[in-house]
Every structure is written in C-alpha cells, then in structure tokens.
Amino acid sequence: MLLMTLLTVISIPLRADNELRLLTDSLRRMIDEKPYYITLKEQRIERIKHQLEADLTFEQEYKINVLLYNEYKKFEVDSAIHYADRNLSIARQLKSDNHKYEASLQLSLLYSMSGRYRDAELILNTLSPQKLPPALLSQYYNVYACFWEYYSISVSSNQYDAQRAAYQDSALNLLDHQSFGYRLYRSYGESDSTKAQKTLQELLEAEEVGTPNYAMITHSYAMLERRFKKRDEAKKYLIRSSIADIRNATRETASLQTLALMEYEDGNLADAFKFTQSVIDDVVSSGIHFRAMENYKFYSIINSAYQAEQSRSRANLKTSLTIISITSALLVLLVLFVYIQMKKNVHIKRALAKSNEELLQLNERLNSANSLLNEKNSQLSETNDIKEHYIAEFFDICFNYIHKMEKHQNILYKVTINKNYEELIKRLKSSDYINEEVHLLYARFDKVFLSLYPTFVDDFNALLKPDEQIVLKPGVLLNKELRIYALLRLGITDSVKIANFLRCSTSTIYNYRTKIRNKAIGDRDLFEEEVMVICPKQAQ
Q1: Which ranges in 73-207 belong to alpha helices (H)?
Q2: What letter does residue 179 receive in the DSSP assignment?
C-alpha cells in the first residue's frame, strides 16, 4: 500500500511535465503552420468582401463593413480602419446617430491600437455619454479604458492606471453580471483564487475549445495561475490560449508574448526566441502599436541572449566534436595497431611453417624468374627500339615542319611586301595548306606505324567477324578506324588526345570504338585488350 502511494505521488509531477512538453511541442508545430491559418483567414475575408460587389443599400453595406471590421480588428488594423471610416461616411449619409456613434467608437479603438492616440482622443471628445444609447454606453467606456491602457504601454508609464480603471469600472457596471465579458474581467481581478478559478472553469466548460473566447478565458486563467506562482499551470493555459490565437489568426497575441517572457526567465532561450519571433511577425503584420512597444522592450534582450547561447552551444559542440574526433582517431589507431600485430603473428607462423618448402622451391623460382626477366628485357628492348624509332621520326617531322613554316612565312612576307593583300587574305583564309600537311602527317604516321607493325591490318581483321572486316582502298595504308586502334596500340588511350590528333570530336572517337567493338568475333568487352597484344614484327 505504501509503495502504491509512493508511485502515485511520483507519477503526478511526471504526468504534469509530460503534458507541458506535449503542449509545447504542439505550439511549436502551430507556429510553423501559422501561414496556413492566415491563408484561411484571408480566404474568409475575401468571401465577405465579395458580398460588397452586389448592388447594395447603404444599410446592407454597413452591416457587411461591420463584419469586415471585426475580421480585421486584430488581424490588420489599417484595413479595419478603412471599413470603420467607410461606415462613418455611410452613417452620415443615412443620418443615423446610432450608426455614427458605433462607427466612431470602432474607429477610435482602432486609432488607439495603431498608436494614433491624438486622433482617438479627438473622436472620444466629440461623443457625449449622455447622448449615447445604453447599448453603446458600455462600449464607450471600454474604448476609453483601452485608450488609456494602450497609451500607458506606449509611454511606459503607469500614471494613467487610475483613468483606465475608472472607465473600466464604468463599463463593467453597465454590463449584465451574468454576461461573458463581466464574468471574465471580474475573475481576473478576483482576490479569492478559489472563486476566480471556479468562475473561469465554468466559462471554459461552456465555451468550445479553440474559439477566440476560449483564447481569452485561458489567458485569464494563466494570469491567475501566474499571480499565485503556479508557473507550469500558467504555461499550460498560455499555450492553449496561444494555439487558439494562431488557429483564429489573431495577431494581438498577448498570451504568446507572456509565454515567451516566462520561457526567457526559465532559461529556455530557444523557445523564448521562437515565440518572440512569432509575436514580432504578428505585430508587424497587424500594425498594433502598443504590442510593438511591449515586444521591442525585451525582444533585443531575448535575441541577444539567444545568440549568445547559440554561440556557446556551437563552441561546446565544436569542442566536443574535437575531443570525440581525437578519441576516435586514437581508438582507430589502437585497433589498427592490434590488428597489425595480430597479422604479423599469423604471417610469422605461416612463414615458419612454409620455410622448408620455400627453400626447396627457391631454385625453381629463381630459374622461372630468370626466364621471365629475359622475356621482360626482350620486351623492354623492343619497346626502346619503338621509342627510338618514333623519337627519330618526331625530330624529323618537327624539322620538316619548321622548314615548311619558314618557307610559308617567306611567301607570306613577300606577298605582304608587294602589298598584294587580296592574295594574302586568300592564302590566310585557305585551309588547303593545313589539310595537305595533315594528310602528309597521317600518311607518314601510317607508314611509320606499319613499319613497326607490318601485319597490324591482318591481325586486326582477324579479330573481326568475316563480313565486318575492314577493306582498304588501293594506295591507302590505314583509315580512321585503324588509326584510332593504332594509337591505342601505341599506348595512347585518352580519347581527347586521340580526337585532337585525328581532328574530330571525342564523341566521334567513342562512336568509332563502339562500332568496331560490336563487330568483334569474340567478347566485345575484351576486344581492345586483344588489340593491345598484337606484336610488332620485323618488316619483310
């Protein structure tokens, strides 16, 4: 029994912590999804605006503008001002005092929210409480209370609290004591926490989750819990209120602002920064001036603290990664050392076991090695002969080209001296000289190559299918396909170098090589390896 009681006592705070974490995770996701709910709000506003396109009476337009005012009031103050101002003009044309008073109060509230306190006060001063109908009198006092509250926030002074409280009390005295607004406000100012909680709980039970009223109730509940030092409970209700505000695209987000401040006080800088950034975005988009004044006071503090924490985290991460890297490297070296030692031991054992056998086979291997060495020497001698031959040909070609270039230069010089510019241009534009030299180069290459590999064409054709063998025209030593494989046989395997020598594109070389491989009598993948083993022979 004692154990069950102990487990129950331990599990209660664990469940509470888990609930707070889940709610916080939900809020983070809602902030990331905020653009979706803003789009829904904008679509709803567009549907209401569409009604204004019909042929309406002033009274009908007035009612639609009231709907738009309510949609825009905590979403985009400037747009709300536009529709309230339009209703004021309609009220004057209808000569309706009630409409004029209502639109004026709406316009004054919006001016206070946007920081135009002089304009808001001018409107309020033009209204006489004695002339207002009872339905608007409470609203008049409430707008005046908001005026002093927002003005106090903007000037960072509480000297106007008395005026605000007086107007707020006047507004409340005119409300039905069973109304939502009266009960909500009185619960916040209630000194008896039990009574206040009971009232707020009754309001919550009667209200659907996620509505704007639900957001206000949970905000008041959170402020009550915070006043009585119940921080976790306050956070839970602030989160519920913030989620409802985001879902309704309410940008006058007092709950999220308070929650950001509490997270900062608790050292949760990442959440404090994320929540504050969301609030700032709402303030900028909505144009609610007094919220901007509240936020700017501590936004820079939270931002600086967050950036400093990020810097410390990055530094700690860098240090940790360095330590882990060094430790990992040492561990790898240690494992490698052990592995090498183990392999050495295995090799030593195997070497000792085979030493007698290796000694017996040593003479035989030496004989085989000598034979192989002689064969390699023969191949090296043959390769050196080929290199010497090509080097001699290379120098001969170079000297011939230098001689021809000098001769061609002298011809061009004489043409230029004689000022025969047409002849000069003709010679410079003509490719005959270059084509002739290229032709001579290929002819010389073919001759030299076949002097080293006189049976290359026959050996090459022997690798192709009988009906696919290459038949050269009379007087032609090699064609382009044979030259490609002649260069490959000489060890030039780079397609770019082959393409440069044969004055064509690399794709052409690739296509020629693919085409020839497809004609192979054997395995096409081994064709080029078989070409490489065609042996040079002495010319007959």
Answers
A1: 77-94, 97-113, 117-126, 134-154, 161-173, 180-189, 193-206
A2: S
Query: Which among 445, 110, 82, 77 is positioned nearest to 250, based on CA atoms?
Result: 77
354 alpha-carbon distance from chain centroid: 62
The span from the CA of 444 to the CA of 462, in Å, is 25
Question: Inter-axis angle of helices 97-113 and 289-417, to 10 degrees?
Answer: 60
Q: How many helices (H) and strands (E) does the chain have?
A: 22, 0
Break the chain down into helix, strand, coil percent, rounded to 5.
80, 0, 15
Within 10 Å of residue 279's Cβ, how many Cβ atoms? Answer: 26
Instruction: Kindly report, residue by residue over 318-339, the tens digit of the pLDDT.
Output: 665 666 677 677 777 777 776 7
Mean predicted confidence (pLDDT) in 164-192: 81
- Residues in the chain, how many? 540
**Is the pLDDT reported for residue 366 higher than 90?**
no
Q: Tokens 């909680």 — which residue? A: 197
Query: What would the DSSP string read from start to end of 376-416?
Result: HHHHHHHHHHHHHHHHHHHHHHHHHHHHHHHHHHHHHHHHH
- Give the C-alpha separation, 517 to 61, whole Å: 84
Which of 39, 63, 40, 64 is closest to 51 using CA atoms?
64
How far from chain centre, in Å, is Cα 172?
Answer: 52
For range 192-203, the mean pLDDT: 82
Q: Which two tokens stand for residue 286?
A: 């909505």
pTM score, whole prediction: 0.55
Beta bridge partners of 464: 520
Of the candidates 266, 260, 305, the one whose C-alpha atom is nearest the C-alpha of residue 283 is 260
For the chain, the straight-line distance linking the first and the last C-alpha, in angstroms and rounded, comes to 112
